[in-house]
Amino acid sequence: MISGDVIRGTIDLLVLDSVLDEPSYGYAISKRIESRVDGRYEIKETTLNSAMRRLERAGVLESYKDTSAAGRPRTYYRIAEAGREFYWQRRAEWLATVEIVSQFIREEGSSR
């Protein structure tokens, strides 16, 4: 299981990627994230909700009310137009971060 501390700075990227192709609601977003990583990371409901509120305030995520297939009212989230650009910027930033950090990750038994 991946530590929440390690992934904390990338939650926005995970959430935005989860709604990049189609709108979704909170529970489905959390299950999509968990499924994509084969259960190695479980996003907490409070973490997801605060990320979605933060992204809405930033104008990169939009929410709207609709009913589910079962007829229950739900809040759905979709990426805003500004959110697409934000997603691609965060993606580039993450890839650069991985490249930098990988320079400091040693193979087991390596002394460099």
UniProtKB/TrEMBL annotation:
InterPro entries: Metal_resp_DNA-bind_regulator, Tscrpt_reg_PadR_N, WH-like_DNA-bd_sf, WH_DNA-bd_sf
UniProt cross-references to Pfam families, sorted A to Z: PadR
Residues annotated as transmembrane: none
Organism: Micrococcoides hystricis
Domain Transcription regulator PadR N-terminal: 15-86
Coiled-coil residue spans: none
Listed name of the protein: PadR family transcriptional regulator
